[in-house]
Amino acid sequence: MSSTTPTPTTNGGGAGAGAPPKKHQYDPVFTDSVIAATGPKASPRMRQVMASLIRHVHDFARENDITVAEWMQGVEMLNWAGQMSNDRRNETQLLCDVIGLESLVDEITSKLLVGADADYETTKSAILGPFFRKDTPPTENDASIIKNLPPDAEVAYMHGVVSDAATGTPLAGVTVDVWQCSTNGLYEQQDPEQTEFNLRGKFTTDENGYYGLYCIRPVPYPVPYDGPAGKLLQLLDRHPYRPAHIHIMAGNDKYTPLVTQIFDRKTQYLENDSVFAVKDDLVVDFKPITGHSKASLELEYNIRLAAMKPRA
Amino acid sequence: MSSTTPTPTTNGGGAGAGAPPKKHQYDPVFTDSVIAATGPKASPRMRQVMASLIRHVHDFARENDITVAEWMQGVEMLNWAGQMSNDRRNETQLLCDVIGLESLVDEITSKLLVGADADYETTKSAILGPFFRKDTPPTENDASIIKNLPPDAEVAYMHGVVSDAATGTPLAGVTVDVWQCSTNGLYEQQDPEQTEFNLRGKFTTDENGYYGLYCIRPVPYPVPYDGPAGKLLQLLDRHPYRPAHIHIMAGNDKYTPLVTQIFDRKTQYLENDSVFAVKDDLVVDFKPITGHSKASLELEYNIRLAAMKPRA
């Protein structure tokens, strides 16, 4: 959008040389006065973050001449998002997802956790999304997470080794949470037809760092489309689909939990994920296997974790 | 906040000259890729506004290294705001108010409505706030809007002339809506002890442009403090009070509706309104009057409206 390059001025675009259009002559000290209202007992982090947020929001309004009516449309969309959200659904999170914000703060967080001076690579992270459940019960290695097998599903043997990203040492006792949707595109908590905890498992690596399970080959699905995030996607002329993926969370008390998603290299929407979560390192291959009684596909996925930094 | 000056770069601060800290080396094409996902059928306005919003939100996140945990605190605050909002309360609007956004879009809108080339001054606008009611019944001129008179109230005779800002001609048939809170700081819809439409009136100017009514001298009051806007004010170490004011909305089918507030020159909080709505032109004097049977104070307030521009 070459016509909307942001400027860092407080007074909107156009001020300065020559005679700027009168409509950009908004009160030049207003933003500073709002920021200056912050009291002495605000925390340094709160002071920094809110000053920056206020400046960006005000610059956004001035640069685009946002009217009261347009602002109120935004207010109503956010109220709608809050009113749609509950313990099974987070529509404000989804609004952030469709503008790439969760993916961006995920990138920021994972780089901060590993540290600026690390000379090794951990497995890349991806967004948690709204469908994780903390209360998934533990499962034995090599068990199946499939409680309801849809007729159109392909079963995959997924396995790998979890290791220390810096040393390569396999790690025992690491929890590996795995969750995915069924072939109808719904996670079990969205779908009354699925048994509770269907397609979810919480595994623990053995002494060789091994984890293993049976799951299904994932399918693309649309993010919920009946709320403000769906409305925003329509207004932006965008589709709501996510490429086929499996969610993973891995960590323990010594290793920073990794939250990620792995994507089927053959899936549609790999190049245009509606929530911008795909990274090259997270694209995986489901390989045909024969002579295996429980699965027709194999997926090997090894995970490299960063040890937690000692607290300063 | 000298340490948080925004930069217009896509790659966060510090990229470019020398060796930037690794933690700022976030994906330099990510924001452009999110903006580029907008489809060809999005309206030009939507395309412009959302591209700018996405760029500002992403720059904000990168410049401040916003973590997933911090972002989720913001998401939860917005969900809370939506869940608290209903037809009597708009907490997302109030969140915007305490960061000055409603006051800013009000300034932008009023300047756009009058036009960049106007050589006259209209009465300044101020924010609508959440307490206006569209269904206030019409009232005869010189009637009282006081249905419940608190013992600590001072009664004022408020009157003035509405005129065309460009020509000075008095305007007949202009609707003048007036609303204010009682001396306990509550508007009638917030307070079960007040009669419906207490301290609200909808007047119409006579052939001389005159409107007149009896109201009370306004008092300062805190904005609602039990939700996310109150929480944000606490985190910013700020008070929730608004200076004493009376709301006015004036207009008709030929004159752009003016939304404003007038502030008592003697009120507390004139210099630090919690929602940043005070403008010098809107500060008024309540003058003692004697020998008047219904009021001890007089407030003269004349209003200058802009004629609607013919549609292009």
Number of strands of chain A: 13
CATH architecture of the largest domain in chain A: Sandwich
Q: CATH H-level name of the largest domain in chain A... which superfamily?
A: Aromatic compound dioxygenase
Oligomer: homodimer
Q: For the CA atoms, what is the radius of gyration of chain A?
A: 23 Å
CATH class of the largest domain in chain A: Mainly Beta
Describe this structure in words.
2 copies of one chain form a homodimer. With 312 residues, chain A is of the alpha/beta class. Chain A contains 6 helices and 13 strands. At the A-B interface, helix 1, helix 2, helix 3, helix 4 and helix 5 of A face helix 1, helix 2, helix 3, helix 4 and helix 5 of B. Chains A, B: Belongs to the intradiol ring-cleavage dioxygenase family. Chains A, B: InterPro entries: 1_2-HQD/HQD (IPR039390), Catechol_dOase_N (IPR007535), Intradiol_dOase_C (IPR000627), Intradiol_dOase_core (IPR015889), Intradiol_RC_Dioxygenase (IPR050770).
